Amino acid sequence: MQWETVIGLEIHVQLATRSKIFSGAATAYGAEPNRQACPIDLGMPGVLPVLNAEVVRMAVKFGLAVGSRITPRSVFARKNYFYPDLPKGYQISQYDLPLVDGGALDIELEGGGSKRIGITRAHLEEDAGKSLHEDFHGMTGVDLNRAGTPLMEIVSEPDMRSPQEAVAYMKKLHALVRYLEICDGNMQEGSFRCDANISVRPRGETRLGTRTELKNLNSFRFVERALNYEIERQIDLIESGGEVVQETRLFDVDQGITRSMRTKEEANDYRYFPEPDLLPLEVDARLIDQVRETLPELPDEKRQRFITEYALPAYDAGVLTATRELADFFESAVSESGGYAKRTANWVMSELLAYLNKDGLELAACPVTPEMLGKLVARIEDETISGRGAKDVFEAMWAGAGEPDEVIAAKGLKQVTDSGAIEALIDEVLTNNPQQIEQYRAGKEKLFGFFVGQVMKASAGKANPQQVNDLLKQKLDGS
Amino acid sequence: MAIEAAEVKVIAHLARIGIEEEAVAGYARSLSEILGFVEQMSAVDTTGVEPLAHPLDATQRLRPDEVTEPDQRELYQAGAPAVEAGLYLVPRVVE
Amino acid sequence: MHRKTVAELAAALRAGEVSSRELTEALLQRIEQLDPQLNSLITVTREQALAAAERADARLQAGDGGPLTGVPLVHKDIFCTAGVTTTCGSRMLAEFVAPYDATVVERLAAAGAVMLGKANMDEFAMGSSNETSYFGPVRNPWDLDAVPGGSSGGSAAAVAACLVPAATATDTGGSIRQPAALTGVCGLKPTYGRVSRYGMIAFASSLDQGGPIARTAEDLALLLGAMAGFDSRDSTSVDRVVPEYTEGLNRSIKGLRVGVPTQFFGPGLADDVRSRIEAALEVLAGEGAELHEVELPNMELALPAYYVIAPAEASSNLARYDGVRYGHRCAEPQGLEDLYKRTRAEGFGEEVKRRVLVGTYALSAGYYDAYYRKAQQIRRLVAEDFQRVLERVDVIAGPTSPTPAFNIGERVDDPVQMYLSDIYTLAVNLAGLPGLSIPAGFSRGRPVGLQLIGGYFEEARLLNVAHKYQQVTDWHRQVPEGFE
Questions:
Q1: A277 at C interface, C-beta within 8 A
Q2: pLDDT tens digit sequence for C310-342
Q3: A146, A197, C92, C466: which is deepest, by most CB within 10 A?
Q4: In contact, A244 and A210? CB cutoff 8 Å
């Protein structure tokens, strides 16, 4: 039987505010346990939540970027359950009236073309703390620094049909929230977390199959692996006469499998009701307009502009606009190069990304600045150095040797473009190889390459290859 | 509306309140009585009436995004039942 | 000196007739002597009080004392006080010391008031008789066999017995007005949002409101002036100018339209209370007020709606007491579930458990619409009833409680009967309106209270009416035997 996979994602985006969603405690990552937990985060008696304005602005910004309706009057609710990392015994979240309603994101498909993924909603909520299961005499330690950190949960429609599409959507969303500067996107630190709902059904069937919810998919790679595993598991189960059970499953990174979390899952009854300590959140047109003015150029718009403005192939434009930082790097470099976009693009996409990858560096820590790369491109374009020489310059700059011009001078990489000098070299080579001239003239044209090589060697690689070609041709064929 | 003993146990579990077996019947009785009295509400037709969550028709005020809370962990943990290395200790949570 | 009102004490303090330290010492001594009979205070803060009194005296001497500088009072033990235990009447918080002051505490301290201690109360403010306190029942100074009402029974009894001239209190369904009525003192529940709830331990967040208890309407005005005002730490606090409440106290009430709801004079009302209230209304009429019969058709539904909404919110508000970060924790917990269940079983008393269970049930899946949502719809109907009436009249008047104080132990085993004692007060909380209670006579030696209800933020008008009433009556000047 042919099977079809149906995937929907719930992505928790940690909003990059300075303070928490309902308190004035700091949100910085990595503090000592409970040093960033104030009485509100600790659920102490009598203290009350007050909503952070920036959280609202960030969510509205996201909503505008994905074409959502901003709910004019949204409501916070309490989701009640007991857990040690949930200090109040309830999580403040938006339930039936979320701030961001509807929207869509277009993903590029691997075989070309694009697909629209619907966004059901995005709502605001507070994060819980962390339980540390290391051994404290058989006890668990609770750190509430993360409690009250602002989260936006973005729920997609079940529009994805393969793990690849799910990953493409997740990457697109990841790039978007970073473009919008509403999330640092750091997946190791949990700033961008993904849960997936997945089901399979026979191709052609319109009803959805029973779904499972996969948790703990905290890297693009895990999402793909977990989904692939789960698809196979569900299909095997059905084909062998079993049934998929609706449940939450945890992805086990080490074994690469998903495992049922049913053990503790009683019939959850969260007893939602409107949070009486907070009033309805009204977002008026004025606020929406204010936020709209702060919207940056979005990834899709930027990509399109790169294609038209820089005459780049769609593929290049896609790579270069994958993150806002890379796009900015590219644009600064192009401008420094004097507008040589395609060559700059090639250098960014090949050398720069390869070096970053090799050294495991983020762009922000890159030793070669956009200005340095732009100048290097300019030196290739004005024929000061050859492409080959440029690679040496880049390597030296990466190692901290300084500006391209300094490196070129220090290494003596300046090309020889004086035709007199080149002619002298050619004459010398021809004089030394009379036999080869004879063979060449007798029709062994392949030997032309030999002569070029000899001339280049004689110039220690500094002769301009084009000039060598032209002059050699004149000498050999013309006389 | 009569609340059965089994239901009392479910509610007590949701509320995480331990109830001795011999007290269950008593709770079932008093909860039934309260809920029976609350039942009067069902006699009124409230179709189309918007629920009132807050007495005043006000909207949420927003706080500027500023860190205003200093670290006072030692003060906050002074009355904590069990703390080690700055962490609150609870019996081991089985995942 | 202990018989003096806040206004009188303030005058004496400013005139230098008495120092705050002398006053504080005198009242601390009186507390030591008399409170064992009443059990109105859970904590007495002698050292802090004396230190605060000395600071107040310094201010007074420097000539920058306000109307409350140097005036002693007690706080209901529901208001958090930095460095002093805040128990909320519960074993759960028997040793809890908050690292912060409630806004009310902070404001009164800034005004120079001197805290003598923390007043007893029903556990987590759940009760109408002050019998649910972990620290034992409070007795009514008018009759030691009687309850003082609740949940602010300690605050009311302390003021009635002249242990302090004033106290803070909170009112979720009548917890300021009903004990004020039952102990013959004055109590004001302000408009929801008028007084900050920050640092006030929550019972039912959408109903809770802090307010003062004192012996005269004038004193209530002085106290409210200090307590009220916008607080950025409470999202439900209202940003609105606080009027000078003492200014309009003497305004004539000639032509004032007083609405008298027929529903406040139904079958459950004790005859003595009825006649005392009718007499009080005649006094108002004698001052020129016009009495109008009005209807609050959904009044009866307020009680069941309240007993869904309040427990529902409470069940969630009290979930934080789990033995993890502060408060009571059971010994030797065998696993997490055991920690939760035993801690909460031991830490909470019967009435609290009962209400948490009712609230949990009302919010649980399958019952939400039938209970919680339905109750919120009725809440709107109740609020609309009041709005309609308040378009036609200036204030609403009637009894505060259907009966005078009942005996200790009389209603503890009958929760529904107990709940009925708040039948005239809790509708006001559902609507979020201001209401006050003032003494209006006695029924077989036990006080009867007159309740006045006004439109949103009309506290000044209620205080004006109450003050005019007190200009021509002397019920508020009566002091129980043994406490003169």
A1: yes
A2: 999 999 999 999 999 999 999 999 999 999 999
A3: C92
A4: yes
Do residues C466 and C280 lie in contact, with contact meaning Cβ atoms separated by under 8 Å?
no
Judge if A33 and A176 occupy the same domain: yes
What is the domain count for chain A?
Answer: 3
Is the CB of B91 less than 8 angstroms away from the CB of C334?
Answer: yes
Round the CA-based radius of gyration of chain C to a whole number and report it.
Answer: 21
At A222-272, the pLDDT tens digits run 999 999 999 999 999 999 999 999 999 999 988 989 998 864 445 679 999
Burial class of residue A111 (count of CB atoms within 10 Å of its CB; 0-12, 13-18, 19+): exposed
Asked whether residue C266 carries a pLDDT value surpassing 60, the answer given is: yes
Residues of C in contact with A46 (CB under 8 A): 79-80, 98, 102, 197-202
Our CA-based measurement puts residue C5 at a distance from the nearest CA of chain B, in whole angstroms, of 33
Same domain, A372 and A426: no
Mean pLDDT of A338-350: 94
Q: CA C360 to CA A267: how far, in whole Å?
A: 15
Collapse the DSSP code of C436 into the 3-class scheme (helix H, G, I; strand E, B; otherwise coil) and give the result: strand
Can you give the residue ranges of every domain in chain B? 5-43
| CATH assignment, B5-43 | 1.10.20
Question: Is residue A276 within 8 angstroms of chain B, CB to CB?
Answer: yes
Q: Are residues A272 and A367 in the same domain?
A: no
- Residue A273 at interface with chain C, using a CB cutoff of 8 Å: yes
Domain range summary for chain C, segments of one domain joined by + = 6-256
pLDDT tens digits, C183-198 = 999 999 999 999 999 9
Question: What residues pair up with C451 in beta bridges, in sequence order?
Answer: C398, C437
Report pLDDT for A469. Answer: 84
Is residue C359 pLDDT above 60, yes or no? yes
Q: Is C16 left (phi over 0), alpha (psi -120 to 50) or beta?
A: left
**Residue C244's pLDDT band (cuts 50, 70, 90):** very high
Nearest one of A50, A49, A51, A27 to A37, comparing CA atoms? A27
Residues of C in contact with B19 (CB under 8 A): 345, 353
Interface probe, candidates A250, A279, A286, A291, chain B, greatest B C-beta count within 10 A: A279
Question: Is residue A126 a contact partner of residue A151, using CB atoms and an 8 Å limit?
Answer: yes
- The answer to whether the beta carbons of residues A261 and A249 sit under 8 Å apart is yes
Per-residue model confidence (pLDDT) at position A266: 56
CB contact under 8 Å between A84 and C336, yes or no, is yes
| Separation of alpha carbons A10 and A67, rounded Å | 18
Domain at C6-256: CATH architecture: Alpha-Beta Complex (3.90)
Supply the CATH number for residue A472's domain.
1.10.10.410
Select the residue of B62, B73, B89 nearest A56 (Cβ to Cβ). B62
Which of these three, A290, A324, A349, is where a domain ends?
A: A290
User: Are A230 and A345 contained in the same domain?
Assistant: no
Taking the CB of residue A285, how many other CB atoms lie within 10 A of it?
Answer: 9
Is the pLDDT at A414 greater than 80? The verdict is no
Mean pLDDT of A27-43: 96
Q: What is the pLDDT of residue C105?
A: 98
* Domain end among A290, A309, A334: A290
Compare A134 and A322 and report the one with higher pLDDT: A322
Residue A433 structural domain: 419-478
Interval A185-212: pLDDT, tens:
999 999 999 999 999 999 999 999 999 9
Q: For residue B91, which residues of chain A lie inside 8 Å, CB to CB?
A: 138-140
Residue of C75, C324, C344 to mutate, interface with A, max A Cβ within 10 Å: C324
What percentage of chain C has pLDDT greater than the value 70? Answer: 100
pLDDT at B95 over 70: no
